[in-house]
Write a structure and sequence with these properties.
0% strand; GtrA_CellWall_Glycosyl; 5 helices; GtrA family protein; 81% helix
């Protein structure tokens, strides 16, 4: 039962760290979105894509060096490639909802754009959390499992010591 509870505690800590980085990423995303939207004449979805890309870079740094710093660090090229692939899918989900609201329903006021940008971020975040923890930031073997395996090996070595012959 303790292993289940410790596994649940690890998951809760992971979700909290993911949420902290993601929450900061949302602020970056919405801040850049509103800045680009008000400073330039770019259409809403283009401004949103720029903001999403900035947030993706911010989030990768936060996830790699804080949330998932204890995860496997081998194959960084593969990790980054998968991160960018799944982030691109999240970008399409996030900005697809904004596109639908803006051009499908004509909801283009600053408030409406921010609401649908936020909803898109939320939906895309669910996908990103699952894909990042499953495919990108892979788990190293659990410490308990490694310790159990080492203890088992030590017992096996102890029982296999050569027996002395008595004449």
């Amino acid at each position: 039962m303790e292993r289940r509870s410790s596994g649940l505690q690890r998951l809760v800590r992971e979700v909290a760290k993911f949420g902290a980085v993601g929450g900061a990423g949302i602020l970056v995303n919405l801040g850049v979105f509103n800045l680009v939207r008000h400073v330039t004449d770019l259409p809403v979805v283009r401004a949103s894509v720029i903001a999403t890309v900035v947030a993706i870079v911010f989030n990768y740094l936060g996830f790699r060096y804080w949330t998932y710093r204890d995860r496997d660090k081998h194959g960084r090229t593969k990790e980054l490639t998968l991160f960018l692939l799944f982030s691109a899918v999240g970008l399409v989900i996030e900005n697809g909802l904004l596109y639908l609201a803006t051009y499908g329903f004509g909801w283009d006021s600053p408030l409406q754009s921010n609401i649908f940008k936020f909803v898109g971020i939320g939906v895309a975040t669910l996908f990103r959390f699952w894909s990042y923890r499953t495919w990108v930031f892979r788990t190293l073997p659990a410490r308990e499992t490694v310790a159990d395996a080492e203890a088992l090996l030590e017992r096996a070595v102890d029982t296999e010591k050569p027996r002395q012959r008595v004449l």
